[in-house]
Amino acid sequence: MTQIVFQVSEALAVINQTLDYAYPALSVQGEVSGFKINQGKWVFFDLKDESGTIACFMSLPELNIELCDGMQIIVRAKPAITKWGKFSLTVQQLQPIGEGSIKKAFDLLKKKLTDEGLFDLAKKRSLPYLPSAIGVISSTGAAGYKDFIKVISSRFPELSVATYHAQVQGLDAPAQIIQGVEYFNNLSNPPEVLAIIRGGGSADDLAAFNDEALVRKIASSRLPTITGIGHEIDTTLADLAADFRASTPSNVAELLVPDRRELITETNHRLASTALFIENQIANFVENIEQNIKDAQTIIMHNLENIEQKLALDSNLLTQLNPENILRKGYCIMRNQARQIITKPKVGDNIYIENHNLIMEVNVKNVQNK
Amino acid sequence: MSKTNKTIKQMLAEFNEITDWFNDADLDIEQAVAQYKKATELADEIKARLEKIKNDIDIKVVNN
């Protein structure tokens, strides 16, 4: 049998072709060792276990979590031999596994993004009141999504819900959720709010929501976002980046729309309060008017009393000034023949003397000054 | 049959605006009665619509 003899480069090409055919994408788990970044562009590290080590390489933009030596991760990578004969994995995706590694990656990335201001409270937008259209990103087969639909349907059914189906755990989840965010953000008639939901799970299950690219995409969404990921105690970086965090998918529904039965109760209450307010206002008006009338009556009575008093005084005075009363005191009025009152009769005049009950015609015989 | 083409949200906003108006202490009593009548009509319409919407939710998956 003739042996095929390859040149070195040909051998490398054949081996790489075989690897590419047999293992187009390999998932490998191991501990990170020798992590370094070269020229600000290339990431190098080794993945190792108790008895083996594989070199790994990737471009910095594709590194979606914070890595450090000692972390346990899973990579999805393409195996190949370099032209220098070195076997390595070209990493396409990776995620931390195990609570320790996940927590480590979480803490590192959280600090980095916090320092950038991505989670600043000042950037948070409020949720729209009674949205008519909601965009949801979730796995439509998952229990969390079904809970959300059930709760929102019972609370306030008069709205439209557009769902972008995406995986919510695993290596492919971040990219799919990002596509969902981009889909809704790019709509010419977008929904009023975006909800990203998934039900409870382990730290591994929720790791996708700590993916740096996904967190940045949520933070940059032009649509207000609310997340409902896991249980109440779970807080992911996606939760911190969103405008609002709900504790569960059901809680998302409760926060997005009011319960129509509560709305009816509140409407009745406001109407009753308004009616009571009007009744009180009318009572106040009536009381004011009655008080004003009383005050007016008091003033009128007081004025009347004053007038009566004055009248009595004037009447008294008038009585005193009545000529009849003066005549009764013995005084008389003298008149001439023309009945005019005179004060200086002359001797020989015929005059009339009038007292309180007599008119006497007399002839003046003598006049003397007192 | 609904007397208006307004959404529930629009009617609620209008209703709340009217009831908030009553917070002004210096209001005209006749105007207040007129506003109350308007609020009552709106409330009846809102409640009727809320009772009616049982299964109006429209759900669709956009990337099936």
What is the structure about, briefly put?
The complex is a heterodimer of chains A (370) and B (64). Chain A has 370 residues and is of the alpha/beta class. Chain A is 41% helix and 23% strand.
Provide a descriptive summary of the structure in words.
The complex is a heterodimer of chains A (370) and B (64). Chain A is an alpha/beta fold and 370 residues long. Chain A is 41% helix and 23% strand. In chain A, the strands form three sheets. In chain A, strands 1-2-3-5-4 form a five-stranded mixed β-barrel. In chain A, helix 3 runs parallel beside helix 8 and helix 4 packs parallel to helix 6. Chain A is rod-shaped, with a radius of gyration of 54 Å. Chain B is mainly α and 64 residues long. Chain B has two helices and one strand; from the N terminus they run ααβ. The longest helix of chain B is centred in the middle third of the chain and has 24 residues. Chain B is elongated, with a radius of gyration of 16 Å. Chain B starts with 7 loop residues before the first helix and ends with a strand. The mean pLDDT of chain B is 80. Strand 7 of chain A pairs parallel with strand 1 of chain B, so a sheet runs across the interface.
